[in-house]
Amino acid sequence: MMRPTPSIIRVIDLETTGPTPPQHGVCEIGWQDVTLGADGRWEVAGDSGARFVNPGRLMPPITQAIHHIRDEDVADAPYWHDVARPVLDPWPRRVALAAHRADFEQVFCTSALTHGAEWICTWKCALRLWQDSPSFSNQVLRYWRKPEGLVHETGLPAHRAFPDAYVTAFHLRDMLNEVGVQQLLEWSRLPGLLPRVRYGPDRGKDWREIEEESLIGFLTDRDPDVRFTAETEMARRRGGGHVGRPDRQELLL
To answer: What is the model's pLDDT at position 239?
Structure first.
């Protein structure tokens, strides 16, 4: 009897020379699979690794100071178009790709390279599921949540492609086991729903607690996440929603 093809979501992390191609390029890609087990639970298991990539340009000192990858480290590495497809579109076929703040990875991991894969953004999903976190960066979530099974040393050094993908995979595993694939995909297609006001006189407050005059000011904010959150809160108020923290059922809607 043939074994069923495993269900895999591949977590991706990139280190780059900067944020915007074609001015900037990828200098390292890391990945860690999260696999659906026979018991119906997702687990951090399967293929993982990292590869240097020649970005085709010199490494700016400001980005070297973050990931500590030097020009000589990537001088003999293959170029992005030779590395990307085997990592992003593996066999057996993955259900989706995932990344923390996946909008960044998607700028470099184009649909042509991913074979049209859908993406889960663990940052956007963390905003929905773990509202009490003091911050929503990959590393803050790591130390605030302390995911079961995460090997501390394997997740270091931070700001390198494989360790960061490894840490993200544990966040993704727990999200999948809490609400499932489709809910995470749905949240990831939308802008981020921020649990607290980021700046201004109401900084740090729950959005439901601020005055409507302040809320109206955020409706035209340049940040799409702030704008989306303000629009969502305004729609909730117009619909007669209560002021205060959303309950668990509301978060899942």
So the answer is: 87
